[in-house]
UniProtKB/TrEMBL annotation:
Transmembrane segments: 237-258, 265-282, 288-311
Pfam families, alphabetized: Glycos_transf_2 (PF00535)
Protein name: Glycosyltransferase
Entries under Gene3D superfamilies matching the protein: Spore Coat Polysaccharide Biosynthesis Protein SpsA, Chain A
Coiled coil (UniProt feature): none
Length: 320
């Protein structure tokens, strides 16, 4: 068996049904699926049983310990040569496994990370959040559109490692605080080849509201600081750009009161960025509603991530 697909799930029975359905439609058939129920009060066991006749599926229930440790549990039970890690809120194109397999073989990869995208049937808000998470004008350039694929840090919604990687360096060291980024850095430090496979995308069907999206982005900023506990080099200049954007927005009303010409210049810069976001989203989705929501989600994503990074960095410097 080549692939073992590891899926942690917590109170998401409807999501897991849609993901498993997409897995049953894969062109590449040499795989098993391991669903690790992480102490969910609303479990997915009955739904998993519906797919047992479609492919090899193992359902495991454990006490709640966090998605990172749930993935570790799944990998200890896996039989495949290569482990694929997915979040329960993604859907796979039918050629996903085939694309991953070809990339592994032709590029001699020990590990990989793939990007996410929005399917045509997603809601306007889901498309807007996808834009905010993947656009060049936010943090998308470091999430899944790198010129050098070897610089990519894989994310837990769509990543994979060879069995030998897990056996040599172990799995996730944190339940849910940037554990995927930490693992990516550790994999590379151990000398394994991890790269972005841009064509192996998943449809990321986020269930967020704008409020929960802001909270999630804030936690992503905090998580980057948490990763720096293990790898001090994890925070680079590019990761501070959302914080710079946040401080830039805060400074606009201040300069209107203190020095009007600078405020006007800042508004011009903000206008240029806003126009770039609107044009980019409009070209991608062709919807006025999605375009407006994309601008809103982009503001929220940058401000929230920047605030999370700044707050956690200050907290770390105080606590030590």
């Amino acid at each position: 068996m080549f692939f073992s697909i590891i899926i942690p799930v917590f109170n998401r029975p409807d999501e897991i049904r849609e993901l498993l359905s997409s897995i049953s439609n894969q062109d590449f058939l040499d795989f098993e699926v391991i669903v690790v129920e992480d102490g969910s009060p609303v479990d997915s066991e009955e739904i998993c049983r519906d797919f047992e006749s479609s492919f090899s599926l193992c359902y495991i229930f454990q006490e709640n310990s966090g998605q990172g440790f749930a993935r570790n549990h799944g990998m200890t039970k896996a039989q495949g040569e290569f482990f694929i890690i997915l979040d329960s809120d993604v859907v796979l194109p039918s050629d996903y496994l085939g694309k991953v397999y070809r990339a592994i073989q032709t590029r001699k990869l020990d590990a990989f990370g793939g990007p996410d995208a929005a399917d045509s049937d997603f809601s306007a808000l889901q498309k807007a959040m996808d834009f905010a998470m993947t656009s060049f004008w936010t943090t998308g350039g470091i999430r899944g559109k790198l010129k050098n694929p070897s610089k990519y840090q894989a994310r837990g919604f769509n990543m994979g490692v060879a069995r030998r990687v897990f056996e040599q360096i172990g799995g996730f060291v944190d339940p849910n605080q940037g554990e995927d980024v930490e693992w990516s850095i550790r994999i590379k430090k151990a000398g394994f080849k991890l790269e972005l496979v841009e064509e192996a995308f998943v449809y990321h069907k986020r269930k967020n509201t704008l409020t929960s999206f802001a909270k999630q982005a804030f936690s992503f900023g905090r998580n980057r600081v948490n990763v720096s506990r293990f790898h001090p080099e994890a925070i680079q200049l590019v990761h501070w750009l959302p914080t710079v954007f946040l401080l830039f927005l805060i400074s606009i009303p201040f300069f209107f009161l203190m020095f009007d010409p600078i405020a006007k210049l800042e508004l011009m810069v903000l206008g240029f960025w806003s126009m770039a976001v609107l044009i980019s989203s409009g070209n991608r989705f062709g919807s006025l509603l999605v375009t407006i929501l994309s601008w809103t989600a982009s503001i929220i994503q940058l401000v929230s991530y920047g605030a999370g990074l700044l707050v956690e960095k200050i907290k770390k410097s105080i606590v030590g």
